[in-house]
Amino acid sequence: MAEEESNPESGLMARQTTGEDRVRMVTRQLSEPRTANWIASEAGWSHEPTKRVLGRLVNDGILHRDDSGTHTTYYPDYRRQAMQEAMRLRDSGHTVEELTDRLAEMKTQIRDWEDEFDVESPNLLRGTLVDETLEADEEDRRREIAREWERLQRRIEIVGFAIREWDFLAPTTEPAEAGS
Hints:
Largest sheet: 3 strands, antiparallel
Number of domains: 2
Helix content: 55-70%
Distance between the termini: 59 Å
Structural class: mainly alpha
Order of helices and strands: HHHEHHEEHHHH
Strand order of the largest sheet: 1-3-2
Radius of gyration: 21 Å
Strand content: 5-15%
């Protein structure tokens, strides 16, 4: 109960959702492959039931399972996630012009970081951390910028897709005819 008092959101989530719901919520947010233990921990649920849910999500094609490493990992179908996010953007009430402006802002931000740090990627920015003259707060800032840069790169791809496929992503009210 002490943890719930110190973090009311975690207590609320645990009280209002089932373990399976929490596993599904965690897996929807994955941006990189994770182990069942990591997912169980994030969901606040035990390992074995988490593995059963993950197995069902794999069977349903919602997650992929990778056994090639030292630990089995699970990751979402990034194409499905991107398509769903593009549809959410299309249905959000934003105009294509507003999304185009947002796309330009994200690209400008990345160009600003490229100019500020004289690097071309988030990993090259991380490589600047070897500079022993950097203060700890500047190292933290660069790590955070590298993470945000990667996030913006993913968003640029999705927003760009939504803009390119604006008409295709429009909600339809008529069912498609078979054989058309």
